[in-house]
Design a protein that fits this description.
Strand content: 5-15%
Order of helices and strands: EEHHEHHHE
Largest sheet: 4 strands, antiparallel
Helix content: 40-55%
Length: 126
């Protein structure tokens, strides 16, 4: 994933793995509440030549979706018929705990905030 300025120069970058696999572990009854994350799924038809490009407005929406995922996983937001504990069983492993998920989300949020503040285009690659 790259953030590019108007000259198409890479300002900063990071791996998009969390974004690409995020929607898979969301409960079916709330998946539609995360349209951008759904579009970033590995099997989404929104990929064009293994690329999706976003401007600040969509990056802002994606940031909001990621923040909401974090709140749900950390039990800070109640969603009817959603069991955060059950979701975490699919997301976590012996080596990848809730703290790691929170760290990944924090890094993504920082990336998105800097991209929005600097009005950068974000390209996410498979």
């Amino acid at each position: 994933m790259e953030a590019l300025n108007k000259k198409k120069e890479i300002v900063f970058e990071m791996a998009p793995n969390f974004l690409i696999y995020c929607s898979r572990h969301l409960p079916k009854n709330i998946k539609n509440e995360f349209p951008i994350l759904l579009n970033l799924d590995l099997h989404s038809d929104k990929w064009i030549d293994e690329l999706q490009t976003f401007q600040s407005d969509k990056i802002y929406e994606l940031k909001k979706e990621i923040e909401r995922v974090r709140r749900i996983l950390n039990r800070e937001e109640f969603v009817p018929n959603v069991n955060s504990e059950k979701i975490l069983k699919f997301w976590t492993t012996e080596d990848y705990k809730l703290k790691d998920i929170n760290d990944d989300i924090y890094e993504l949020k920082s990336f998105f905030i800097k991209s929005i503040e600097q009005n950068l285009e974000v390209k996410i690659y498979l």
